[in-house]
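Please decode residue identities from the backbone states below.
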């Protein structure tokens, strides 16, 4: 076998095994799933209903005295796949002593404002509950969650919040920085 073929084989092996090693590390993540009570409608007084929004916290690397909060606003599916596929947050958490928070988007996963009836039409209106599925309502959920965490989690009050995301989640992260600059620092 020529040295060029050996070198090519080694490079190919490296690029095959490196992602497997990274994936193996992500499978061993430690985190806790919580529920946060939030409003179904943040913007009017007509609806006082609340629901349980799921969120995930990983505090393995967090330094309560000077750590950052890395926040991932959930996309259009349950939250766990984002926990396992957002490796950069986990890698950077070590260096920034960060608390990781992943919030599930309303109407996805188990964060259903009206449970099984979230997607059903009622006798009086067509899909009336779907009126609360919007990026504005989701961002208000996230703002309420982050405010609650900063006020109730020891050491979080003065922590800066950095929002991450991909695709729709990246749009939410960027819009949250614009709409809630007093909550999202970067």
């Amino acid at each position: 076998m020529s040295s060029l073929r050996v070198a090519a084989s080694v490079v190919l092996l490296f690029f095959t095994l490196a992602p497997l090693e990274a994936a193996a590390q992500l499978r061993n993540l430690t985190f806790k799933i919580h529920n946060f009570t939030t409003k179904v409608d943040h913007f009017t007084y007509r609806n006082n209903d609340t629901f349980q929004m799921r969120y995930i916290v990983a505090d393995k690397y967090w330094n309560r005295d000077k750590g950052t909060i890395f926040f991932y606003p959930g996309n259009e599916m349950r939250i766990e796949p984002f926990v396992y596929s957002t490796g950069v947050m986990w890698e950077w958490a070590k260096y920034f002593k960060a608390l990781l928070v992943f919030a599930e988007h309303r109407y996805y996963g188990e964060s259903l404002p009206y449970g099984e009836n979230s997607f059903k039409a009622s006798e009086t209106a067509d899909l009336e509950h779907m009126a609360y599925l919007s990026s504005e309502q989701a961002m208000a959920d996230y703002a309420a969650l982050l405010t609650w965490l900063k006020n109730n989690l020891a050491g979080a009050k003065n922590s800066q919040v950095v929002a991450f995301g991909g695709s729709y989640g990246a749009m939410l992260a960027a819009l949250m920085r614009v709409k809630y600059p007093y909550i999202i620092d970067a």
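Observation: The CA atoms of residues 33 and 56 lie 5 Å apart.
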